[in-house]
Design brief:
The complex is a heterodimer of chains A (about 270) and B (about 475). Chain A has about 270 residues and is an alpha+beta fold. Chain A folds into two domains: about 100 residues, Sandwich (Immunoglobulin-like), CATH 2.60.40.2250; about 160 residues, C8orf32 fold (Roll). Chain A contains five helices and twelve strands. In chain A, strand 3 and strand 4 form a beta hairpin. In chain A, helix 2 packs across helix 4. With about 475 residues, chain B is of the alpha+beta class. Chain B folds into two domains: about 400 residues, no CATH class; about 60 residues, Dna Ligase, domain 1 (2-Layer Sandwich), CATH 3.30.1490.270. Chain B is built from 14 helices and 23 strands. Chain B has a five-stranded mixed beta sheet. In chain B, strands 13-5-4-20-21 form a five-stranded mixed beta sheet. In chain B, helix 2 packs across helix 6 and helix 8 crosses helix 9. The chains are: A alpha+beta (about 270), B alpha+beta (about 475).
Chain lengths: ~270, ~475
């Protein structure tokens, strides 16, 4: 499938700030499932900083915007050709060993309820177990936009019984850890046709390490594994670590944010 | 009672390195001694060196007692120590390069993977990033104790930001001012080259993107930090700027320092703040001490951070047990310096042994430091031992245990005259393009009779440490 992305993030500060630094994970991952045809990231008034491939295999690009500035826009435009690999992250190079992804972070910390949920399923092999965990998370947390916020933890979302893709991914990571399976948070884009179940074009899911197969993606929000409708940008232990854009402003301006994402299929 | 090795008197005879100190000691009248002691204290107060060593907490304005009786090593004793220390510093750096890359030592089954990769000090954000010259720990502080003429043990490694080197320099300076005749009678190797050597070491690991003479700075958390004196002292002697996080900022591919002449590029940062506070964009978002964006500049080769973020995974007390294995694995050599035999309470059999022998052992927290959260079996009451037993049973993996070592003694001035007191040693090994070690270090002394705890927070003092020239 050929997917076209147009992703604009606008930052507005009510008082001009003295400067902004950002760290981007905005380049599609390099693996068999996707090939970039065209990709362009621009930052209004920005100076491009250093770039490097991190231990998880993602390209990280630094930017800085000298102040005073009260408006910044980050625009991502490009075309990616994707393939359905049933969620398997094939031929993706990374240095960090799977076991390192067993470390908990604040939003993925396991409480009693998450431990119970993680133990509520059984399966004959790791792959089946991972599918079952993903299903259990989808059953336990109903998809409802607006029910949670950016800092909701997996435990809180489970107690609430509602959440969005970020909460699903955090809960699945926690449940996988309960079963001693390394897991991580993935951010990316999703192309969804109208007849689909709820969706967000800026999307997130989880990957679970399955010995023999490697990293396999699971999307509880859509009860499936990532296929040709998904574009993978990067991974981290949780939403904050995997965020496509991380930034800090110097100054006292209050930040407001406006994001638009369009993912469309390009006719062959 | 155990026999302790006395570094000056061996079965009544004076050991050679101390030969010339005997007359000095015997000929000093008591009045002169107390006069000199008061003079030394006044000198220390005037310089303002009053911080607690090793970040042990306690009253930061308290003066650490200085004992005028020097601790002496012969040329040959030191050569062997030097080889052992350098070997260890090389192995620790090789380990760090390895675990942030392919992890061969783990793949080879020599160290359990979870011990490394689930360690709090292992930093995922720097995996796959090779620091300049492959060096992670640029200043390695190795804590040593001695139990016999040729028997030294490594107590622990400090790969992050070992402190206390200002004491090494000040102790020498004060001894030279007060007893110039001692330095004429003995040929003592100098230590005052340390700051320049440190500056050169740091300059030798300038980043890829640095052009021309590198700019080195020391990054301090600020004047409220207990080691602030040392930060400013070193900056002065090295001739580099002492900065706080707010003095630096990131723009483009570099880190910049605000100066009255405008922004100046910074190439090497000797940081005296911990990893989690370095960069709120990468680590703790609530850090006010760090520089937003610093880690991206570091990881893309725009600046060097010393020690490298993530270096702490090599000096954890659970990893410590594997350092001799690192020496064999990476260097193909036998370790020159021995580890103290250590029981890891995370292991079932070890825990069983430790619980059965608590009154003989020293039990330490894996992540603790400064002599707190520690049980010294032979000095503890029954109640203390029982309380500790519960802690051990509750969280065994949080503890290691070691035999109580018969720490060597060095003559020390006490109220009644001169008496033996237990000591340890921290030398500071510098790792850059070359590995260098200034002949000396910081000797800490337990001033309380019979005490084996040298920490300044628990009645410890410091001594000048001599290495005799050939």
């Amino acid at each position: 499938m050929k997917l076209k992305v147009d992703h604009v993030t606008r930052y507005h500060y009510d008082h001009p700030v003295r400067g902004v630094v950002q760290s981007h994970r905005l380049i599609p991952s390099r693996f068999t499932g996707q090939r970039v045809q065209k990709w362009d990231v621009t930052v209004s008034g920005g100076i491009k900083g250093g770039g490097f491939r991190d231990g998880g295999g993602d390209w990280v690009q630094a930017w800085s915007v000298p102040g005073p500035v009260s408006e910044i826009s980050v625009r991502v435009q490009g075309i990616v050709e994707t393939k359905d690999l049933a969620g398997v992250l094939q031929r993706h190079r990374e240095v960090i060993p799977p076991v390192a992804w067993l470390r908990p972070t604040a939003p993925t910390r396991v409480d009693a309820a998450l431990a119970d949920l993680g133990h509520s399923v059984s399966a004959d092999d790791t792959l089946a177990l991972a599918h079952a965990l993903s299903g259990a998370v989808a059953d336990a947390i109903a998809y409802r936009p607006g029910a949670t916020h950016a800092h909701t933890t997996a435990a809180e979302a489970l107690a609430l019984g509602e959440g969005v893709c970020q909460d699903h991914a955090h809960a699945l990571i926690a449940c996988a850890r309960v079963r001693d399976l390394p897991a991580r948070y993935v951010s990316g884009y999703l192309f969804a046709s109208e007849d689909d179940t709820p969706h967000e074009a800026a999307h997130a899911w989880a990957e679970i390490w399955v010995e023999g197969l490697g990293w396999v993606g699971f999307d509880p929000s859509n009860r499936c594994c990532p296929d040709e409708r998904y574009i993978r940008l990067g991974a981290g232990a949780d939403a904050r670590e995997a965020a496509p854009i991380r930034g800090i402003a110097r100054g006292n301006g209050l930040e407001s944010l406006d994001v638009t994402v369009a993912v469309d299929a390009v006719q062959q | 009672m155990t026999d302790f090795f006395n570094e000056m008197f061996d079965s009544g005879a004076v050991r050679v390195p101390y030969a010339r100190l005997r007359d000095w000691m015997e000929e000093m009248p008591a009045e002169l001694r107390s006069l000199k002691q008061a003079e030394a204290e006044a000198l220390f107060r005037r310089i303002g060196i009053t911080f607690a060593v090793y970040g042990e907490g306690g009253d930061p304005d308290r003066l650490i007692p200085f004992d005028m009786f020097p601790r002496v090593f012969s040329h040959d004793e030191w050569r062997r120590l030097e080889r052992g220390i350098k070997q260890r510093a090389r192995a620790l750096n090789a380990f760090l390069s390895d675990v942030y890359d392919r992890g061969e030592i783990v793949r080879a089954g020599r160290i359990p993977d979870r011990l490394v990769y689930l360690n709090e000090a292992y930093e995922k954000p720097v995996a796959g990033i090779r620091p300049p010259k492959g060096v992670y720990s640029h200043i390695v502080g190795i804590d040593l104790v001695r139990t016999g003429p040729d028997q030294f043990y490594v107590l622990e490694d400090n790969c992050r930001t070992p402190s206390g080197v200002s004491y090494m320099l000040e102790n020498r300076e004060i001894m030279m001012r007060m007893f110039p005749e001692l330095f004429r009678a003995n040929r003592i190797e100098p230590v005052e080259g340390y700051p320049e050597l440190l500056r050169r070491t740091l300059a030798s690991v300038a980043p890829e993107k640095c052009r021309g003479e590198p700019t080195v700075v020391i990054l301090t958390p600020g004047h409220f930090n207990s080691a602030y004196y040392e930060h400013s002292f070193l900056a002065d002697l090295m001739g580099v700027e002492l900065v706080e996080g707010q003095d630096l900022f990131v723009e483009g591919e570099h880190v910049w320092m605000r100066t009255t002449r405008g922004p100046e590029r910074v190439d090497v940062i000797y940081r005296r703040i911990d990893d989690p506070f370095l960069d709120p964009l990468c680590f703790r978002p609530d850090s006010m001490l760090g520089i937003p964006g610093l880690m991206d500049v570091y990881r893309s080769g725009g600046v060097t951070i010393a020690s490298a973020p993530g270096a702490g995974v090599a000096d954890d007390k659970a990893i410590y047990c594997f350092v001799p294995e690192m020496v064999r694995f990476y260097l193909g050599e036998e370790p020159i310096l021995e580890n103290v035999p250590t029981w890891q309470c995370a292991r079932h059999d070890d825990l069983k042994y430790v619980l059965e022998h608590l009154p003989e052992l020293v039990v330490k927290e894996v992540h603790g430091s400064g002599g707190y959260g520690m049980l010294v079996g032979p000095k503890a009451t029954k109640e203390q031992i029982e309380a500790f037993r519960l802690k051990l049973l509750d969280q065994p993996s949080n503890y290691i245990a070691q035999p109580t070592l018969a720490l060597s003694t060095v003559p020390t001035f006490v109220e009644e005259g001169v008496a033996p007191r237990h000591v340890d040693l921290r030398p500071y090994c510098l790792v850059g393009e070359r590995i260098e070690l200034v002949p000396g270090g910081l000797t800490r002394v337990a001033l309380t009779e019979g005490s084996l705890v040298v920490n300044s927070s628990q009645g410890g003092g410091v001594k000048d440490t001599w290495v005799l020239a050939e």
